[in-house]
Write a structure and sequence with these properties.
heterodimer; A: about 80% helix; about 0% strand; B: alpha/beta; Rossmann fold; 2 domains; 6-stranded mixed beta sheet; 4-stranded antiparallel beta sheet
């Protein structure tokens, strides 16, 4: 256990000292400041917007869910940037630089070493994602007096999505060079986002084929499905036309959702980490 | 009455083979390092020295054969617990101080030496004044010495040092040489991979020369040096009797005196380790 804490602490110290961490923190501060400004203007002017009497739209819920969806996208994006840059060179990159060898020859075991690095990166990213998500929820609450029907679960799902990306990035770092791994993971992330948007388009067009393709992508890349499920949860109390309009937008939520995808994601994470441990045990350094 | 179990060798590799795709880096290497023995590994670039060292410390998996450290499979936790290793290319995080690097490795190697061990190790590699200096503020030579101190954390029984003096100046090399001799006297076993023949010749009990993945010569530096003749200095000048050995010297002197020559000096010529090495590896460039 002490070896796990030592290596996780080593990874944590390395993470917070990297320039990418400072860049992400700076971008996050900028994003949150702009987000607060946007919320201020949106909810100030909301009272002046009056939809026609025969159109039953809950403007506050629509605005709140849309803005929080936007914040969740930004949080996921920044969380993934952080996750990938913290882990893309955990094995190949560190081995090339000679940082890994002195650690591997200590009697802690390769699996402990890799799991500790995973836990260190996951701890940093989970804290980051939950903090940014929590601040976004608080900004909407203060500026617009709106809170999502489910506050905690979407944040946990966002963090879960980022943890899956960490596992994939660590697995990739064993098989690929740092640059190739970074490109591969960002392409996977982009593919997931595209598939999610495709699902929304498919829903709007009522195209079963597009929806089907989107569902396959959601199961194959469950970090996207978890994010989509989080979006679904923040607008789960939006019914009627409000719900319909939210569903048409990019932050409408999942078509693959619920406990099925959560359990699948957990299993996916375990398999990805196990594969990484196995691959690392056989990797020449 | 049961036979007493023999003490396992500090480090032993048997019929070790390693293949990287079409390239066979090691072709059945046998090598051992006994307790309190300092063995030098020599060979040109690409001979398989680094591969052999990496298999011994568990960084690389052998394709065939076996490698053991104090009787435990190389790379296993039991083997790594007995091992100190300095990689040829290594780096410590730049923001760590020298003391923090050693503290990290103390925790990972379960050493209970504490601050006293760290202080002692830094003194031994002449880094006592750099205890709180960050790694990124150290010269290459200082980092190399810190790497050697790191390898000594936990007083390992077996040390594997891959080019430990490559970045050191003559004074630094001397520090390492003295340190190696102390370690051997203390009972540690050392496998030293180096390109510096003079260094190997000075400190090693035995030498193994690798060429193209095979051990082509092995033995003590004295065993490896071959007679190259006897040089006689007489009133007629200096004459070399090729093919003569140490035991022929007295006879040659007697013959010269009997022939009326005045003998001023006699010297037995042997090949240096460098000459033996060059003979063993042929014209391969190191």
């Amino acid at each position: 256990m002490s070896a796990v804490l030592t290596i996780a602490g080593y990874g944590f110290r390395e993470a917070v000292r990297r320039k990418v961490f400072a860049v992400v923190v700076l971008l996050t501060a900028l994003f949150l400041a702009l987000f607060w400004l946007a919320n201020h203007f949106v909810f100030t002017r909301l009272s002046t917007i009056s939809p026609p009497t025969d159109v039953n739209v809950d403007t506050r819920t629509f605005a709140g869910a849309f803005l929080l969806g936007l914040a969740m996208f930004a949080t996921l994006f920044l969380g993934v940037v952080l996750a990938v840059f913290l882990t893309l060179g955990v094995v190949s990159g560190d081995a090339e630089r000679g940082l890994l060898q002195p650690l591997v020859v200590r009697p802690v075991g390769r699996s402990t070493l890799l799991l500790s690095r995973f836990l260190g990166a996951a701890a940093v990213c989970i804290v980051y994602v939950l903090a940014v998500y929590g601040i976004a929820v608080a900004i909407i609450d203060v500026a617009g007096h709106w809170t999502p029907p489910s506050v905690l679960a979407p944040g946990v799902e966002l963090a879960g999505g980022v943890v899956i990306v960490i596992a994939l990035s660590i697995l990739g770092s064993i098989l690929l060079s740092s640059t190739a791994n970074g490109i591969a993971v960002f392409m996977l992330f982009g593919a997931g986002l595209t598939a999610g948007l495709l699902g929304t388009i498919g829903h709007a067009l009522n195209s079963h084929e597009i929806q089907h393709a989107s569902k396959i992508a959601a199961w194959a890349l469950p970090f996207e499905a978890l994010y989509q499920d989080g979006l679904r949860l923040i607008s789960s109390n939006a019914h009627g036309l409000t719900g319909f309009l939210l569903q048409l937008g990019p932050f409408g939520g999942a078509y693959v959702h619920g406990w099925g995808i959560r359990v699948w994601s957990a299993g996916y994470l375990v398999v990805a980490v196990a594969l990484a441990v196995f691959a690392f045990s056989r990797r020449d350094l | 009455m049961p036979y007493p179990r023999p003490m396992p060798q500090a480090l032993a590799v048997h019929a070790l083979e390693k293949r990287y795709g079409p390239v066979q880096a090691l072709k059945g290497v046998d090598l051992s390092v006994e307790e309190s023995e300092l063995v030098g590994l020599l060979g040109p670039n690409g001979a398989g020295k680094s591969t052999l060292v990496k298999i011994a410390v568990g960084l690389v998996r052998a394709s065939r054969g076996r490698a053991e450290v104090v009787g435990a499979r190389a790379g296993s936790r039991a083997a790594l617990a007995e091992l100190g290793y300095l990689a040829e290319l290594f780096r410590f995080p730049g923001w760590y101080t020298a003391d923090e690097v050693l503290a990290l490795h103390q925790r990972l190697s379960h050493s209970d030496g504490g601050a006293a061990e760290r202080k002692h190790l830094l003194e031994r590699v002449a880094l006592a004044d750099a205890r709180n200096r960050r790694v990124d503020g150290m010269s290459k030579g200082m980092q190399q010495r810190l790497g050697i101190a790191q390898a000594l954390v936990g007083s390992p029984r077996v040390l594997v040092l891959d080019e430990p003096t490559s970045a050191l100046d003559p004074a630094g090399r001397r520090i390492v040489r003295v340190l190696l001799e102390e370690l051997r006297d203390r009972g540690a076993s050392v496998l030293l991979n180096s390109h510096l023949l003079s260094e190997i010749e000075l400190v090693c009990d035995r030498v193994a020369i690798l060429r193209a993945g095979e051990v082509v010569a092995a033995g003590s530096p004295d065993e490896l040096s071959q007679p190259r003749g006897v040089e006689l200095e007489t009133d007629e000048g200096v004459r070399t009797v090729e093919g003569a050995a140490r035991e022929d010297a007295a006879r040659l002197v007697a013959e010269a005196v009997a022939a009326g020559r005045r003998v001023y000096g006699v010297r037995v010529l042997t090949s240096t380790l460098e000459e033996t090495y060059l003979e063993a590896v042929g014209d391969e460039v190191s």
